[in-house]
Design a protein that fits this description.
The chain has a five-stranded mixed beta sheet with strand order 4-3-5-12-6. It has a five-stranded mixed beta sheet with strand order 9-8-10-7-11, sandwiched between helices. The chain is an alpha/beta fold and 298 residues long. The chain contains twelve helices and twelve strands. Helices cover 45% and strands 19% of the residues. Strand 8, helix 9 and strand 9 (216-219) form a beta-alpha-beta unit. The chain has helices spanning 7-19, 22-29, 33-47, 63-88, 101-108, 114-120, 170-173, 184-187, 197-205, 222-230, 240-249, 278-297; strands at residues 52-54, 59-61, 94-100, 123-129, 142-146, 154-160, 165-168, 190-193, 216-219, 235-238, 253-254, 266-271. The chain has three domains: 7-86, Winged helix-like DNA-binding domain superfamily/Winged helix DNA-binding domain (Arc Repressor Mutant, subunit A); 90-161 and 264-297, 3-Layer(aba) Sandwich (D-Maltodextrin-Binding Protein, domain 2), CATH 3.40.190.10; 165-254, 3-Layer(aba) Sandwich (D-Maltodextrin-Binding Protein, domain 2).
Length: 298
């Protein structure tokens, strides 16, 4: 018979380790602070090691605690994935796809159509996140991430690797200078998300003076950058995931100049089971086909 620690104690410890606080762990689990403290104390007694250093307002993992926190987190994640799949059943017709906002709105939505969904023959449950998924919930079937992500119960494969380039609305380009004129970049503000990484790289590649830029317009989401560029508010930089539908409609035009290789790419997470259910396989194959067309058209 396996001598395993109490599961409630493991859950209390793992939550406290994540939050660095017994009180916040108690709030998450819906129990009292005293219950979390008791579970952790009993777990420490059972394992024979101190898992936390206690302070007045927070707790800090010991070396042994850090090791066991990783073990507990991985074990609970595996349980979540396994139980989620069993609850939903292997022959279900609903497929849960986890993507971040920009990929969902700028790339996936323009490719969805009534005819396409009819052809897939599945119920699609889209989970849109503010940021790229770094972990996957147990009831998710597929996920698209930026960069390879290691998640228990899933395997990762490259999906798309796209070049980065600048674009602008035709109405803005009509104001001049010409698209090929370096003065274009000192005549209009630069639109970008958070950091200046891509614009700095582009200015370096084009041997332009970054400090001579006319101004900056920041957004915290890439799809808002694209929408602002469509409105003629400045020059934007990104890839075909971000601009694809706008380029196809003529709302944005790709500017001549350097094409920057990506720091990373988009990856597809699929269950690491030996065989995929028919509906999951259908959606996976459709995503791979859409990705191939996207990169081929770039």
């Amino acid at each position: 018979m396996r001598a395993l620690p109490n599961l409630n104690a493991i859950r209390a410890f793992e939550a406290a380790a994540r939050h660095g606080s017994f009180a916040r762990a108690a709030d998450e689990l819906g129990v009292s602070h005293a219950a979390v403290s008791r579970h952790v104390r009993n777990l420490e007694a059972e394992l024979g090691v101190a898992l936390f250093q206690r302070h007045a307002r927070h707790v800090v993992l010991t070396g042994e605690g850090s090791f066991f926190a990783r073990t507990a987190a991985d074990s609970l994640a595996a349980l979540e994935v396994g139980s989620g799949r069993l609850r939903r059943g292997g022959s279900r017709s609903t497929v849960v796809l986890d993507v971040e906002t920009d990929v969902g709105t700028r790339w996936l939505m323009p490719r969805l159509s009534a005819a396409g969904l009819e052809g897939l023959g599945v119920n699609l449950d889209l989970r849109i996140r503010p940021d790229p998924p770094r972990s996957v919930l147990g009831d998710v079937d597929l996920a698209i991430t930026w960069g390879p992500v290691s998640c228990i119960g899933f395997k990762t494969a490259p999906l798309m690797d796209c070049e980065t380039f600048p674009a602008a609305a035709p109405s803005l380009l009509e104001q001049g200078p010409e698209p090929g004129d370096p003065a274009l970049y000192s005549s209009h503000r630069l639109i970008h998300e958070r950091g200046l990484y891509w614009w700095r790289r582009y200015f370096e590649a084009m041997a332009l003076d970054f400090d001579a830029a006319a101004g900056h317009l920041y957004f915290n989401r890439s799809h808002l950058c694209a929408d602002a560029a469509v409105r003629g508010l400045g020059l934007v930089i990104g890839d075909v995931i971000l601009f694809g539908d706008h380029l196809a409609s003529g709302a944005l035009l790709r500017l001549p100049g350097a094409r920057l290789s990506s720091r990373d790419g988009y990856y597809l997470l699929t269950p690491d089971t030996r065989t995929l259910s028919g509906p999951v396989r259908q959606v996976r194959d459709w995503l791979v086909e859409q990705a191939r067309e996207t990169v081929g058209d770039a």
